[in-house]
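Hi F.,

I've been meaning to write this up properly since the lab meeting, where we talked about keeping a consistent format for the predictions we share between groups. The idea is simple: the sequence comes first, exactly as it goes in, then the structure tokens exactly as they come out, then a line or two of notes. No screenshots and no reformatting. I'm using this chain as the first example so we have something concrete to point to.
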Amino acid sequence: MPDPDLRRQLAAAVALRTEAIVRALGRLDDDGLREPSELPGWSRLTIACHLRYGAGALARMTRATLAGQPTAYYPEGRARQRPATLVPSDGESPRDVVVTLAGHSRNLDEAWSTLDGPAWSRAVVEPGDNPDLGPSDLARLLLLRLTEVEVHGSDLGLGLDDWSDLFVRAALPMRLDWLNSRRANHRDVDPSLQGSWLLVATDGPSYAVTVRGDRVESRPAGPTSGSEAVIESSSRNLLALLLGRAPREPPRIVGDEHGVERFAAAFPGP
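Output, unedited:
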């Protein structure tokens, strides 16, 4: 992400979206925070806890990266540590979680506000025995955080359904490129799901995505490149598909009529 203006815009978008989330959650009482969200199996409180942990983890990872130290999103390992990050601490009320979400988010904003251009390009080095995010730099952490607050903000079911155009423009190519090294976020994937898809954004880029054996290739392509299925929709809807969320309108399918279902199963999203 070489453009410093884009980085500033993304950082500002993270802060703006987080403020909207905190305001929306702050209007709820404890019972309202415990109500189910639109993300199956997660309450609004689960989302608040998850976003709070993410803010603290990314601030910690930023400091460690600047100090030249290895760092991990879950230092104790995802399987061991993650469940406890999705619930309040002992004796903590739901509203306490919202307050600390706001505080951790401010700390993250402050950590990122000090970074210059070269710093954003610093590689995030994970411990060899605890890989989680895969190859990354600090600029990618910024876009990952915007993804979390945009998508989980809409998951809350509190009227924050719109994703910003900036987020869609920046996140779609990143997510498509990331398929080359990160097929799914620690979900089991059926190895028999093979195929080729051409994702055509009606308002943006086209990408060819192919799965052959254990190999995944995702690359920019022309809108007429060959594939078993063509999935054509808006950039916003294609990003929703990559993030495991329902598109606003059904995409246009050419070729394999089950192309969307097969793609979603092959790439189940974060």
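Notes:
The radius of gyration is 19 Å.
The chain is about 50% helix and 10% strand.

If this format works for you, I'll send the rest the same way.

G.
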